[in-house]
Design brief:
124 residues, alpha+beta, three-stranded antiparallel beta sheet, two-stranded antiparallel ribbon, 7 strands
């Protein structure tokens, strides 16, 4: 599943900031709920990272490394905190890789899909 950015409207994975008192994986699961309205089992092992530019008006742009954790979706909610601010859509892995702007994220999506096709999950 991909979501649109609030300002850019570009397709992206749900992502956010580390949260006090939560692991990075648990923070990722929380962001998936807030941005996409999905809940499930988060894998504590990241599949990798990619560089992303967060636009933070009026502070400007901030380059961050985003750690990506897969989420086995168990429920998709009809209502969620950022429902009015974003679109969400399910894509095949191939289509998701084609939709995202980041070459690094595209490689992570493709690599994750290949590991699933081989019946294994690899950490980067």
């Amino acid at each position: 599943m991909l979501v649109t950015g609030r300002r850019s409207g570009r397709w992206m994975i749900p992502k956010g900031w580390p949260m006090i008192g939560k692991s990075l994986a648990d923070s990722a699961a929380q962001e998936a709920f807030e941005e996409a309205g999905i809940k499930g089992r988060i894998d504590p092992r990241p599949i990798g990272t990619f560089r992303h530019v967060k636009r933070r008006p009026p502070l400007g742009n901030l380059e961050v490394d985003v750690q990506v954790h897969p989420l086995a979706v168990e429920s998709e909610l009809g209502d969620w905190p950022e429902r009015e601010e974003r679109k969400r859509k399910w894509f095949s892995l191939k289509a998701a890789a084609a939709e995202v702007d980041s070459d690094e994220l595209r490689r992570l999506i493709v690599g994750f899909g290949e590991s699933l096709a081989k019946g294994r999950r690899v950490s980067a």
